[in-house]
Amino acid sequence: MAIEEFKFIRPGEVRVRIAPAPTGFLHIGLARTALFNYLFAKKYQGSFILRIEDTDVERSDPRFEKDILENLKWLGIEWSEGPDIGGKFGPYRQSERLEIYAKYIEKFLNDNLAYHCFCSEEELEARRQYLMSVGQPPLYNGKCRQLSSEQTQKLLALGEKSIIRFKAPVKKIAFKDLLRGEIEFDADLIGDFAIAKDLATPLYNLAVVVDDFEMKISHIIRGEDHIPNTPKQILLQRALHFPQPEYLHLPLILGQDRSKLSKRHGAIAISDYKKAGYLAEAFINFMAFLGWNPGGEREIYSMPSLIKEFSIERIQKGGAIFNVKRLDFLNGFYIRQKSPEKLTEMCLLYLIEEGLVVPTFKSEQYPPAYGGMEITQMYKIPETREEVSLDYIQKIVTIYQERLKKLSEISELTDFFFKDKLEYDKELLRWKEMGDREIKDSLIRVEKIISKIKPEDFNKENLEKEIMPEAEKMGDRGYLLWPFRAALSGKKASAGPFEIAEILGKKKVLRRIKEAKSKF
Question: What is the value of pTM for the model shown?
Answer without folding.
Answer: 0.90
